[in-house]
């Protein structure tokens, strides 16, 4: 009995295999005769847990609906820095991808060292109506993706802004209202109250390998990070903002100074009442916190308005052959469809870059399910590009990280910022 | 006769060539290229490389950050020597000569962590030792002590990162040293028992000198491998911070090369590291081979 059933299975299996083989053979010969399939590769930074699944879904749907283009997605570990490193070796070996995510911090480095097709050129080359870019993107959004010469390098794809998360359970317990957190002064007062009452820290500001959140703080005191290609953050307003931050960390000990992962752990474990970090952390924070957590827009200093630099990445076309460039442009336009962008947003927590997607019903209902994304969305309208120095931009960022480290260890704010500013300007 | 030696020579070359080619392509050529790059200012991708002479080298010794990193490296080496060499050596002697039971169990227990990835170890320790919300902090707070915020102090961060490396390397070094101690001839040890010589004198005057070559091997391994191993926890936990306080020469090379794209500085640092290791290697060859000659 057993024997005969396995025999039947084998025969059925063999026949199925044969049929599939014939089917595929038929397919490929038919295609080959009509039109050649263009293969393009798309490099992204999204691990399976950070939107990788949405990338796969988008690529799969695209390949299903586009007969003559086949996209292969390739994941690059270690975020935009890792992708940039791989891009360099790819350039050296001559096998570049056709489309890649480029982080804002790398805009100038990418523009001056790699060969790429600007979206404007792609539109002029391949589209009959030249309105795709102007129709979908606001001027402000496009400004995020411009290099120091004002040229559009790629199209903005992932947008994020820093927002203020707070432990509502804790704030309620000590009688602090969320509305008092709209200014940094208010945040400081709340932090003091929490420290005195509970002994826990009041505030944590993210400290990753960039100074994005600190720049937001300076900008929200009316300081400028860069003006006419030169660093200007050591101005009176800049020093005052950093001094305020240093006092909270060093003098009052109401703010926590620790690496990023640990700081977020401390917040979700209820050891820090307020956390200032990217909206991209929203789903992680929501999942991990066992208390009531809410978020509001970035605070500002009294007398100034809140201004945040935008985070995330753009899509740049690195394909060299015309047919591949055309395929990459087609793929890019598909990625900017409202439905694609909403899938992307749901998978990653990034905000959609186009006006259409922002006002689409699907995104709005998603916002209602995830109210922590609302403040970030409202900030996009006033956000500014992430500071990218024209020359030696990566070293400039490192200099600003070094300055932050020094200040939070208690060095003089004025001197540290001034020497960092001079060091950056020497290299410009 | 002559055809035989010719054949021998051919075979020698044939047998050696796979290794030789791999060494040449992946070791020797890159080392020479690194040396070449250390004289240029380059960003890894630009078509032009600016020749700057010895500037990259002079900057290593004049730039305060580089000096700090070099000093940290010395601190790391000293600490790793204690943690990964002296302590395992001490414990292996205890296990071998002073404890007669459960030798194998100790071997297995100590060896287990070296099977884990250092990334996993670093992430685990970063969570366990989180000074604000980790389990250790919770426990010591219960006892009325606050865990210091070790990520904010270079010295404390270095100690912590060394302990993480120690967790990984300890067992391996322990097993190596224990095996070395096992090769000390039993008859000599028996003779000391017959003569009623105290155990500590037996260890000091007989075991340690006889085991010198293995010990020296582990010593060099501790320095060379330790500096490389410690890279992972630095990269995962502190990224060299606070203000390069926990960076070492290898991490700083990586930072210059692949984060800041300052290829020249990175290459100069790599060449200096290479020279330091070369001296250590020379010492190892001299000591280890000298020893075996004498006792064979």
TrEMBL record, chain B:
Domain of life of the organism in this record? Answer: Bacteria
Could you tell me the keywords of this UniProt record?
Cell membrane, Membrane, Transmembrane, Transmembrane helix, Transport
The answer, when asked if 4Fe-4S is one of the entry's keywords, is no
> What is this entry's stated membrane topology?
Multi-pass membrane protein
UniProt-listed GO biological process terms: transmembrane transport
Q: What is any Pfam family matched here? A: BPD_transp_1
Membrane-crossing ranges are: 12-36, 74-99, 108-128, 140-163, 214-231, 267-285
Q: Where is the ABC transmembrane type-1 domain?
A: 70-284
- Intracellular or extracellular location(s): Cell membrane
Q: Name one GO cellular component term.
A: plasma membrane
Q: Which family does it belong to?
A: Belongs to the binding-protein-dependent transport system permease family.
PANTHER family listed in its UniProt record:
ABC TRANSPORTER PERMEASE PROTEIN (PTHR30193), INNER MEMBRANE ABC TRANSPORTER PERMEASE PROTEIN YCJO (PTHR30193:SF37)
- Name of the protein in question: ABC transporter integral membrane protein
- What organism is recorded for this protein? Liquorilactobacillus oeni DSM 19972
């Amino acid at each position: 009995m057993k024997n005969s059933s396995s025999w039947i299975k084998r025969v059925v299996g063999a026949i199925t295999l044969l049929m599939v083989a014939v089917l595929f053979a038929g397919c490929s010969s038919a295609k080959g005769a009509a039109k050649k399939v263009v293969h393009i590769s798309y490099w992204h930074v999204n691990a399976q847990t950070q939107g990788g699944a949405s990338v796969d879904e988008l690529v799969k749907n695209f390949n299903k609906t586009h007969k003559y283009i086949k996209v292969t997605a390739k994941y690059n570990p270690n975020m935009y820095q890792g992708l940039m490193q791989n891009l360099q070796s790819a350039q050296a070996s001559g096998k570049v991808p056709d489309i890649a995510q480029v982080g804002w911090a790398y805009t100038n480095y990418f523009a001056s060292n790699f060969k790429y097709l600007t979206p404007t050129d792609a539109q002029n080359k391949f589209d009959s109506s030249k309105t795709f870019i102007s129709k979908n993107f606001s001027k402000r959004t496009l400004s995020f993706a411009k290099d120091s010469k004002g040229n559009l390098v790629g199209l903005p794809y992932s947008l994020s802004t820093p927002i203020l998360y707070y432990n509502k359970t804790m704030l309620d317990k000590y009688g602090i209202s969320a509305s008092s957190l709209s200014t940094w002064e208010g945040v400081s007062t709340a932090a003091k109250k929490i420290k005195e009452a509970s002994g826990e820290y009041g505030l944590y500001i993210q400290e990753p390998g960039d100074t994005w959140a600190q720049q937001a703080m300076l900008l929200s005191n009316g300081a400028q990070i860069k003006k006419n290609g030169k660093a200007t953050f050591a101005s009176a307003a800049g020093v005052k903002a950093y001094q305020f931050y240093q006092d909270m960390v060093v003098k009052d000990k109401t703010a926590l100074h620790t690496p990023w992962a640990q700081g977020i752990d401390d917040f979700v474990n209820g050891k820090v009442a307020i956390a200032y970090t990217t909206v991209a952390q929203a789903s992680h924070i929501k999942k991990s916190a066992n208390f009531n957590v809410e978020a509001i827009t970035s605070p500002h200093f009294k007398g100034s308005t809140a201004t945040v630099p935008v985070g995330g990445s753009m899509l740049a076309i690195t394909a060299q052959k015309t047919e591949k460039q055309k395929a990459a442009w087609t793929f890019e336009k598909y990625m900017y469809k409202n439905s694609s962008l909403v899938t992307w947003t749901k998978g990653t927590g990034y905000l959609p870059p186009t006006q259409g997607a922002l006002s689409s019903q699907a995104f709005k209902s998603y916002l209602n399910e995830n109210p922590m994304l609302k403040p970030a969305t409202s900030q996009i309208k006033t956000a500014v590009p992430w500071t990218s120095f024209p020359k030696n931009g990566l070293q400039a960022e490192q200099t600003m990280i070094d300055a932050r480290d020094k200040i939070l260890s208690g060095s003089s704010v004025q001197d540290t910022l001034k020497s960092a500013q001079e060091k950056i300007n020497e290299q410009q | 006769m002559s055809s035989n030696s010719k054949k021998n020579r051919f075979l020698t070359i044939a047998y050696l060539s796979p290794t030789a080619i791999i060494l040449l392509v992946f070791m020797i050529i890159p080392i020479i290229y690194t040396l070449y790059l250390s004289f240029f200012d380059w960003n890894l991708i630009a078509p032009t490389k600016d020749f700057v002479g010895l500037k990259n080298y002079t900057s290593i010794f004049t730039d305060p950050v580089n000096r700090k990193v070099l000093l940290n490296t010395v601190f790391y080496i000293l600490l790793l020597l204690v943690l990964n060499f002296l302590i395992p050596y001490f414990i292996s002697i205890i296990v071998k000569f002073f404890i007669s039971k459960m030798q194998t169990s100790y071997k297995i227990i100590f060896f287990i962590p070296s099977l884990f990835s250092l990334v996993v170890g670093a992430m685990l320790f970063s969570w366990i030792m989180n000074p604000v919300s980790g389990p250790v902090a919770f426990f010591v707070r219960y006892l009325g002590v606050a865990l210091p915020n070790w990520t904010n102090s270079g010295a404390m961060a270095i100690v912590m990162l060394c302990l993480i490396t120690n967790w990984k390397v300890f067992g391996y070094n322990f097993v190596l040293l224990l095996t070395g101690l096992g090769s000390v001839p039993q008859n000599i040890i028996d003779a000391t028992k017959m003569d009623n010589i105290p155990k500590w004198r037996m260890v000091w005057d007989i075991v340690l000198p006889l085991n010198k070559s293995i010990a020296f091997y582990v010593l060099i391994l501790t320095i060379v491998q330790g500096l490389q191993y410690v890279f992972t926890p630095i990269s995962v936990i502190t990224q060299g911070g606070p203000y390069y306080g926990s960076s070492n020469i290898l991490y700083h090379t990586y930072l210059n090369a692949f984060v800041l794209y300052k290829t020249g500085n990175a290459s100069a640092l790599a060449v200096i590291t290479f020279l330091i290791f070369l001296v250590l290697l020379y010492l190892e060859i001299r000591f280890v081979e000298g020893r075996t000659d004498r006792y064979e």
